[in-house]
Design a protein that fits this description.
alpha/beta, Rossmann fold, Pantoate--beta-alanine Ligase, Chain: A,domain 2
Length: 295
């Protein structure tokens, strides 16, 4: 496994990939787990070369983790990637990715960078748009892999690829879940026992809404109320949002289309977020344009 820190070295390496077969890319912010492994395995199955990056999210780096084994461990992540048989790991140093003279940012606009996750920080949306534009230009992958848990990030990167004519395709794979349905995340280890039990209510809220939709409910306000009520049933959870929106633009919806197997659907996203103590939890289900649930 080759580890690259230099931007110039990464650029030079990418130039030599045209004759080597398709390149699959899995971007990460570290703290790797089985969800990342599923993406890496897909990249290895479908591509000749598998590349992963580790670029720490500045918002996540502000969090002070308590307890043994919860501090960020780069060596452990490198071992994880080596065991997954990744060919190249790109770990750019922050001072080279964002030197003191850096002055050019990518700014997306519209509901996609104003609602739900991005509503917490306009700077976060700018960071994501800029860092993914840089990574895709440096690595030049044929296919970029994301997990569906990062639905808003997926939509943002898909928009970047389209609007900036970046030569890569994007694949969003179903998220990996724990036995009770909780979406897998390294943050789950920070939950107290009772909080961990309550956290599965996010999955239950989405599942209940899915059942209501399949039974014919189309009023988004009622579906949002149902998801919110399920999460509010535990005093350990503080609801941030329960929303249904267009999965590409994140524009909120009022009425869902009828589900049918005979014609294409415009698709929609069910998204929830809540806090359990200091840990922020997110989850989503997507009904795709191909008329199936991505959960």
């Amino acid at each position: 496994m080759r580890i690259i820190h230099s931007l110039d070295e990464m650029t030079e390496t990418a130039r030599g990939w045209l004759a080597s077969g398709p390149v699959g890319f899995v971007p990460t912010s570290g703290r790797l787990h089985a969800g990342h492994l599923s993406l890496l395995q897909a990249a290895r199955r479908e591509c000749e070369i598998t590349v992963a990056s580790i670029v720490t999210d500045p918002e996540e780096s502000k969090v002070q983790y308590q307890g043994a084994g919860l501090m960020y461990d780069l060596a452990r992540d490198v071992q994880f990637l080596e065991a997954a048989q990744v060919d190249v790991v790109f770990i750019p140093r922050r001072e080279t990715l964002y030197p003191s003279t850096f002055a050019t940012y990518v700014m997306a606009s519209g509901p996609l960078v104003e609602r739900l996750e991005c509503a917490h920080s306009r700077d976060r949306a700018r960071y994501m748009a800029t860092v993914f534009t840089k990574l895709l230009q440096l690595i030049r992958p044929d296919i970029t892999y994301f997990g569906q848990k990062s639905a808003q990030k997926v939509a943002l990167v898909r928009r970047l690829i389209h609007d900036l004519c970046i030569d890569t395709s994007l694949r969003a794979l179903p998220m990996v879940r724990e036995g009770d349905g909780l979406a897998l995340s390294s943050d789950n280890a920070l939950l107290a026992f009772a909080e961990r039990q309550a956290a599965s209510l996010l999955y239950r809220a989405l599942l209940n809404a899915k059942v209501l939709i399949e039974q014919g409910e189309r009023q988004v306000s009622l579906l949002n109320q149902s998801m919110a009520a399920t999460i509010a049933s535990s005093p350990l959870l503080s609801l941030d949002y329960a929303a249904i929106c267009d999965p590409a633009t994140f524009v909120g919806l009022d009425l869902l289309p009828a589900l049918t197997s005979t014609s294409a659907s415009p698709g929609f996203l069910l998204a929830v977020s809540a806090c359990a103590g200091s840990v922020r939890l997110t989850d989503n289900f997507q009904f795709t344009r191909d008329n199936y649930w991505l959960i």
